[in-house]
Amino acid sequence: MKVEKIPDGQVISRTPFPASRKVFVKGQLHDIEVAMREISLSETKIHNGFGLTEKNPSVTVYDTSGPYTDPNAHIDVKSGLPRIRENWVTGRGDVEKLDQITSAYGAQRLADPSLDQLRFAFQHQPYRAKAGQNVSQMHYARKGIITPEMEYIAIRENQRIELWNKEQGEQAEAMSHQHPGNSFGANTPKEFITPEFVRQEVACGRAVIPSNINHPESEPMIIGRNFLVKINANIGNSAVTSSIEEEVEKAVWACRWGADTIMDLSTGKNIHETREWIIRNSPVPIGTVPIYQALEKVNGKAEDLTWELFRDTLIEQAEQGVDYFTIHAGVLLRYIPLTAKRITGIVSRGGSIMAKWCLAHHQESFLYTHFEEICEIMKAYDVAFSLGDGLRPGCLADANDAAQFAELETLGELTKIAWKHDVQTIIEGPGHVPMHLIKANMEKQLEHCGEAPFYTLGPLTTDIAPGYDHITSAIGAAMIGWYGTAMLCYVTPKEHLGLPNKKDVKDGVITYKIAAHAADLAKGHPGAQYRDNALSKARFEFRWEDQFNLSLDPDTAKEFHDETLPADGAKIAHFCSMCGPNFCSMKITQDVREYAAKQGLDEADALAKGMKEKSREFTEKGSEIYL
Amino acid sequence: MKVEKIPDGQVISRTPFPASRKVFVKGQLHDIEVAMREISLSETKIHNGFGLTEKNPSVTVYDTSGPYTDPNAHIDVKSGLPRIRENWVTGRGDVEKLDQITSAYGAQRLADPSLDQLRFAFQHQPYRAKAGQNVSQMHYARKGIITPEMEYIAIRENQRIELWNKEQGEQAEAMSHQHPGNSFGANTPKEFITPEFVRQEVACGRAVIPSNINHPESEPMIIGRNFLVKINANIGNSAVTSSIEEEVEKAVWACRWGADTIMDLSTGKNIHETREWIIRNSPVPIGTVPIYQALEKVNGKAEDLTWELFRDTLIEQAEQGVDYFTIHAGVLLRYIPLTAKRITGIVSRGGSIMAKWCLAHHQESFLYTHFEEICEIMKAYDVAFSLGDGLRPGCLADANDAAQFAELETLGELTKIAWKHDVQTIIEGPGHVPMHLIKANMEKQLEHCGEAPFYTLGPLTTDIAPGYDHITSAIGAAMIGWYGTAMLCYVTPKEHLGLPNKKDVKDGVITYKIAAHAADLAKGHPGAQYRDNALSKARFEFRWEDQFNLSLDPDTAKEFHDETLPADGAKIAHFCSMCGPNFCSMKITQDVREYAAKQGLDEADALAKGMKEKSREFTEKGSEIYL
């Protein structure tokens, strides 16, 4: 497939999407501008001999690519993205700007002159909640406050569907048609998402807004079963150390194609500095697994990990602006023997590290014993929990076993503790699960975790296709997304085999956008089907460019089409490149409709009444269609 | 991705699969040899300090690649494959060898000397049922006869699972573990498929054995909801006319990666001759859409089609050996207006052609009015019906509408007529359907068509990803396969955009093998999970080569792994290329087990009892694991 070409010397992908422009929708409650992508479409030619045309209204879609795809935006990775949320954060009057980084490790790195050339140019002093304050979105929601973040999200989730019916005219009925969904008891609004609805969902813990006060560059987004299904892309620095700009590009590249959040799983010496660059330049929330960095600090000796070291690592990352932490606090000593008879044992890295610590110390892990202290840190910066499933199954045979579900129940207990502190919480899920056992995972999660958002890795529905696990897992991801999972962690073709390259990351992201969107359609998210309808209409009318531009990956769609019919003429040709002129069924159906139009008849009437005339007409110039 | 390298001058792909050999299992009722693929595995090293190893039994898998992957087989496309079924056919005493081709068109082509260099070298005289005889497998099944085809299929579907438990020894329990499936009322046997069970399923019409008496080269296979889910790959000659060998290679290539049947959708001047080459060299059943060729015979003027011309085309292709015909006999005049308000109208080529004919003549199509005469032809050669869904939806918006389900009911009526003649029948299905509306398709098909095998195209679960429709459709295909669909027609990445190349065909086939296998696992087909278990065990034990060899696409799995860790040493390295030594969770879990082994303890006991010692051991040589 095509590897995107980036102009020489330009490391950061900035090419705008074809026929698209950024639009900024103003808020009504707050002074905010919600960035979206508007795709303009060409006109439909009405083949009635009078050269009439019909306008096709533009389609507005959810856009995760940030300012990078806006030609009017000035981008300089050294200064970072605009800090759009900073005034909102300070405006609430419950935060203080710290004179200095308060984590020992962070301070030590800052003091090291040998890192000067690595360090992000402009050092922002971190914010923290004033003593006794709680700055989590959940805390505000429970106090009845609709924050700018909440209004931003409401507008963003609606994708301007209110415009569509207005502009449609005659096509309104067909174009706005959407099959009623089945959302398994989720109470998604039928018409629009309102700011108040966002507040209610966050207040009850059914949705999470990852929004560290130290990551004001991120565009607010929400994770919850009553909202659009989101996807996460994992990035990590490669063994061959690449430049800072290349590290930033990995995040930009993933967001460009649709990643709603990024997890930075980098390892090695300079992850502190690399993370700073990524956060400062990321328009989407950033998640991490702090235990990875903690392990590096003890040279990989799991048993040497301590609460104090881990605590300092949490503060270090919280003050950089990490929006959510994966924490494997559910791996209890007594659960570990339950994995002994598994085919693949423990496959979660964090889970293995904590299992090893528990076995080495013969104690419950500090993640579990110090959980309330962790909550205190989370609410001081509004970092959300992503409670890790350290005992998830690593193969179909181990799916839905005692170890997995025992941990899930513990995650449910921890969720209630987090909520006691108004700390936002997500629950992580599997993994490898055959199709018929997927639903049980969703049902148990809802049961034990009080509808806290579920965040799953796939699940993979078979183990026999290494090299294609983006596909084996997209099947499970689409299904569990439909059942109620709020965010899907992508899997790339390299899963189980190696480190993903740029093409793998794009393949993983696009594949997961497909799974997430398929789930939105099945759940019946308001307006979810509109883009499908618009693309299908373009397809039927042979508006090739519109088809490409409405697709998740316009570059690949256009490239594949051009392989067969490279000429520009072909893109307005009235037959599809698949069938050729003699065989294009869509063309044949069009002829029937044009006939109706010429007769000035309703299509159904035309088809019913006009058959005899059509029979004569066909005999007269029967072969016309195919010439 | 990798494009398979074929040795210079060799057009036909013949490279055997790694660590694999052909095995031939003898029948007990009949003198037959069932070809399968046996994958041998390396030993497991038990890390107890004594250098002990443990044997891993070989895994036998279903093999559609025919003699091409057997290094002992002599292949000459000019003489075709061995005619393994010819004696079975003649042995039944109910067929006659015709002196000459009985279709006018076939005779005309044969008489044309300008075609001599195109024509398949060795002309076989066609077989036909003796007057008054019915040679369909359904007819034999209903008479209580277990044919060699039926026994072949029973042995083939079992994949020698009877061996596994024997050879497993200690691992038997874990390795033979399979989650009980949910097959939605299909009565799949729990243990083995028996020849008698095959007969019963064919007799009641719930399964079909496509096996034209004039295609004795094909290895018997079955399509039914109580058997392994099958996949079909479409091939067609490209506009740029390629050599005969290249046309044959397309079929060989698709079978190599797992196509259970091939549909030849070629068009143009020499399809008669091309088809002969493909059939003579195809180890899997061949399907066609005869109306395509009929349309060519009238220069693409649908309204000029006649019953006589179509009838001659059926005989022409039946005498060449086509195993199943897609026939769109359900497109009735009164259904056509039901498509008028659709976004994409009629998208089936055959459906459009017949709709056009109906409108032009203001009559029901000859496919419908002459259906019983068609049955007479089918049973004289044992060609199976694949009743085409000419009114299937072409976009999500049109899914499950009145036109689609009206046609489905008519297909149900036609099925009963076909069964009256003991003619084997499959029903074709959609298309484009959102996830939550897929099940209704399966349920209505079962209801209206008396459990005749369902054969669907995907369905695609969203319209917004042209370029990735193998994935949008694999999601729907896996689900509908689980619900009971017997065969899945593949979709390639080029769907809606252009003609698939070799890489697209492979991507489509592998993607559909994934969907079909995921469905087998969810239905609980006997032994379906064994290959997953074996691959997972290899993964846990870092037996990289075994992982590659057990996968659906060993070449790509190995290539992806080598991109990150090219050294051969890496393939036995005790860490996974994804995580690296510090982070490999599987390695950490292994250490726990090795510890148990060293203590000579049961793993669970070891984990429970041994923690204190382990704690000390870890402190002593804690960092060992990571060095």
TrEMBL record, chains A, B:
GO terms for cellular component: cytosol. The keyword Transmembrane does not apply. It catalyses: 5-amino-1-(5-phospho-beta-D-ribosyl)imidazole + S-adenosyl-L-methionine = 4-amino-2-methyl-5-(phosphooxymethyl)pyrimidine + CO + 5'-deoxyadenosine + formate + L-methionine + 3 H(+). It comes from the Bacteria. Pathway: Cofactor biosynthesis; thiamine diphosphate biosynthesis. Pfam families: ThiC-associated, ThiC_Rad_SAM. Gene3D superfamilies: 6.10.250.620, Radical SAM ThiC family, central domain. Binds 1 [4Fe-4S] cluster per subunit. The cluster is coordinated with 3 cysteines and an exchangeable S-adenosyl-L-methionine. Its EC number is 4.1.99.17. The keyword Zinc applies. InterPro entries: ThiC, ThiC-associated_dom, ThiC/Bza_core_dom, ThiC/BzaA/B. Catalyzes the synthesis of the hydroxymethylpyrimidine phosphate (HMP-P) moiety of thiamine from aminoimidazole ribotide (AIR) in a radical S-adenosyl-L-methionine (SAM)-dependent reaction. This is Phosphomethylpyrimidine synthase. It comes from Pedobacter lusitanus. The gene is thiC.
